[in-house]
Please model this.
Amino acid sequence: MSQQNRRGVIDTLARIRLTDSRVIFVESVIVVILAWTIIAHVFNITNVISEPTAIIAAMYQLVVSQEFLVHLVPTLWRTLLGLLVTIVVGTILGIGMGMRDWIEKAFQDYVTVGLAMPGLFIAIFTAMWFGISDMTPVVAAAIISFPFLTQQVYEGVRDIDNDILAMSSAFGVSKWRAIRRTVIPSIMPEWFAGARYSLAIVWKTVTLTELVAASDGIGWIIRFQLQSLNFTGAMAWTMLFVIVVLIVEYGIIQQLEKRIFSWREDISGVMAI
Amino acid sequence: MSQQDRKVSGASLGVDSGRAGWIHVEGLSKEFDTQQGHEVVFEDLNIDIEPGTFVTLLGKSGSGKSTLLNIISGVLEPTTGQVRFEVDGSEEDVTLGHVFQSPRVLPWNTLVQNIEYVHENDPDYTRDLAEDYLDLVELSEHYDKYPTQISGGQKQRVGIARALSIDPEILLMDEPFSALDEITAEELRSQLLEIWKQLNKTVFFVTHDITEAIELSDRMLMLGDGGIYADLEVPLDRPRRMDSDEFLKFRQKALDAFHSIDE
Model:
């Protein structure tokens, strides 16, 4: 290979390293793992923070033995139920508040309190009400997260372009068609952002509540590992849970987002990002 | 098929190019109660607009142009008086098409879907119909694009195609080119005149631009001082040349009439 070609290859690889987000992510993971290993050995605390290789081996074992599924499935199920309740309540209430003054006046203070209330309080109250059952994490997650979706949807309804509604009226479009074809698509960006944020809260609340009021699930098994002083096991479960969350984010949420918002201008080109 | 091949005439659209409507404005008044007190926008307006004519409405800001258009289009109720429409001697089933100052297209729908949106329960609607009207406004290459993928001028053409697609007898246009740059606006004016010639609709066009009004219309109504201040027939042959002596003389006459409002 000539010197010029070699230089070109090197420049291309350097550009990819600095600009391709997937490459940067992989590099950052490698750096973290290396730093972690070095710290564990230099300070001789491998029994406290475990070596990455031990954690990866434990993760592999959990997946291959399918023990991971035993606790993942209940957590996923509770997360899904909690999210469904959040979406139904948050969407209906948000639209109602945005379209009717009396609903807004009746519920705004509750939404404000819901936004500010520490999630831990709700988790404790629901544990007291429902004990060790599926209801505790589901209800806790729904109560904590629906105010966020409600507020987003309410803001979306208030920001609807009245000119488009006036155009619909001028052309004699029926109310239901206008709601279906203009109001709902119009609030979709706010709804989607609210639903996405609510999902993050639901994930956290479900696993947190499983710590104290469940007999299975990711939260429960992590607490069990910690009580057994098995830091490697706790980290393995945590890392596997993080991978599932990322799979949901990149494999489902972002694909849905691309589909639903395919009409939106790609602003990365516009802003030269 | 090239864009030239797809240029569509009114006949090929299957549109009855003879159906244009009368607009009768009778004793129309509009008053508002505002924080500053009672305001009379205009009173006792009487206007008859013949079928197939292109009429512009001019006036200074605040003269009530948009208010009058909104009453004609049915969005606002008059204080007194009425507006009647008539087609072939009948007042039933007169369709109004609206073109707004901003295009008001649905950004989450393609151009074809934007046309389809206003054809609720229309048994005659087909995708071909939407495509034909998009061809008429020279958007043949863009049927399945989204509004974010086209320019402001092209969006306004979608607005025009949408209004025409419901086969209105009367087209109401509220300063449709005022937000565009002059080059794009001039292109759209030429296109509008072509389409009007082909389809022979009654057009009621609100503008604040005297030159635009002279270029486009058969008749100019000037609103001011609470009523129709001037009603000018435009005596110029089409196509109109804006640099011709006749055009410039008439423009001066119109300007003099415009400036004499409120004197």
The interface with chain B takes residues 161, 163-164, 166-174, 177, 181-182, 185, 188, 262-265 of chain A (CB under 8 Å). The two ends of chain A are 34 Å apart (CA to CA). Chain A has two domains: 3-49, 56-263. The longest helix of chain A spans residues 175-213.
